[in-house]
Amino acid sequence: MSRPSVWSFLLLALCLGAVGFAALTGQAVLLAGAALLVGVISWPLGGAARWLAPIVYAIGFVVALTLPGAAAGPLDLVGALLLIGGLGFITLRDQGSARELAWQRNTIAALRAGSERLAEARDADAIIRAGINILDRLQVAPNMAFVAYRQGTPMILAARGAFEAYLERPIHPSDSDSRSVQADHWVAEEVLALMKKPQRRKYHVAAVYGRATTHLGVLILTRSEDVDFDEDEITVIASFARLLGAQLGQWTAIRELRDANELTLRSLGAALERRDDDTGGHTLRVERSSERLARRLGWAEEQVKALRWGAYLHDLGKLAIPDAVLHKRGPLDPEERRVIQQHTIIGYDMLQDLHFLPAETLDLVRYHHERWDGTGYPSGLRGQNIPDTARLFTIIDVYDALTNARPYKPAWTRDRALNEIRMQAGRQFDPQYVDAFLRMMAEQDDAHLVS
């Protein structure tokens, strides 16, 4: 609503003066006209000012009746009552329209801002918190809670108002009957029972569903006023519940897809090592160690994930290497070495159609045999030109290969392998990553001694 100007107040003062003049001089027509103008001018002021017209007309009419010689017949009284009633009805109707318009504007603004927050959320908890913020902005109720199931137990995962005291609290049956903990009405009853009666004089419960009618949780709203939730509020809450359910359902689907990808890649890595590693466990060892070193270096989670997936797949290309070369007991001749060096490019090419794999994963598969001094393969990259994931992983991969038996060599001792890694800093490996790796291994040794 725009701010009234000074001219509006001056015009209102003139109209009020006209009402007073008409009342004191007994001019009924002028009194009615001036009162109507007061109503027109006072409407933009909002609030109680909108009742100014019927009030000043009633006062002016009564004042006019008290003047000496004034007389009002039945028709005059009926006319006055009709005018006062008409002004009052218009005021009530317009106030209702203004409240409805304000509600619609507030709803649109809240849903617009909330949808942006929902889109930015990166996990289920963030989505739920953003959802509760939307409801809070809608101001449909002071107390609200989102209840969902964690390992089969209902819990309040987000809340406003009096429900905030029960965040992350499991909801258990208050008696010993055998009702299902998945029943919305039961959960709602138990959650409402947490509130004092004055805080839940009126309440509303809305179920939240995701894709394929998957039940995701329950929204519970309460208010202390003895005012029912009206149809517009219930409609908005239902629309919001659908929006929240769609966002949570989408996130759940993405998480399930990511979990499936992770499991598939891990299983593929485990199957691959059976062909190249008689003892098994190489993939799991290098995955854990490289991930631990990456976290020590402060890598972002997305980069750590790319490194982990690359660890699963780093030797995929060995599927195309003949057994006579792969399992040869003894040194490889130049041609056999050329053949086995092709596994990095073969693996890289085999993964091109898996579009969900990040570039850092593909970089690791292709370049994990490059050397810091530029004498590695397949591209002879040097120093910082070697991708980060490949530079880190090659240290872990070589250390594991040294400390475990291969067809062509026995296992080295831990100290001998660590000394070799140290000696190759600046030659085969990134010196900074070697320092971080050696500190990590030393701390691991200290932890073993303490335990």
TrEMBL record:
Molecular-function annotations in GO: transferase activity
Keyword Lipid biosynthesis included in the entry's annotation: no
Keyword Membrane: yes
SUPFAM superfamilies: HD-domain/PDEase-like
InterPro entries: Cyclic_di-GMP/3'3'-cGAMP_PDE, HD/PDEase_dom, HD_domain, HD_GYP_dom, HDIG_dom
SMART domains: HDc
Residue span(s) of domain HD-GYP: 257-451
Domain HD: 279-402
Transmembrane segments: 48-67
Sorted UniProt keywords: Membrane, Transferase, Transmembrane, Transmembrane helix
NCBIfam families hit by this protein: HDIG
Record-given protein name: Phosphohydrolase
Originating organism: Deinococcus metalli
